[in-house]
Each structure stands twice: as C-alpha cells, then as structure tokens.
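re: that chain from earlier
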Amino acid sequence: MVSLLPLQIPGGPELLIILLTLLFTAVLALALPAVIAYVVYRHLSRKNSYDERIHALETEVEELRRRVD
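^ sequence. v structure.
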C-alpha cells in the first residue's frame, strides 16, 4: 500500500534554518539573564563608587580649607 502523503526528510537548507533558530533561541535565553545581571551589578557597584568618590572629595575639601586658614 502506497501512502498518499509522502514523508520527506528535511534537506540542507531546512536543517540549517532549524539549527540557526535553535542557536538564536539558546543564545537569547542565556544572554538575556546575563545582561540583566550585569546591569544590576553595575548599578549596585556604582553606588559604592559614588560613596568612595564623595568621601575622597570631602577629604580634599577639608585639606584645602586647612591650607586657606
């Protein structure tokens, strides 16, 4: 008995598209959380660097005031 719907095996172009789609999805699934973590880390570390910079500037201002007086 012959089937009326021929089952075809995907060829080169179809397999390439499937692999590229899977690769893009995997990269996106891994990159998105990594980018979010990087942005959050930069935001949190920037607050600490602001505190250090403010402290350094306050120390410098105190030193300059002592020189003027």
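The two ends are 107 Å apart (CA to CA).
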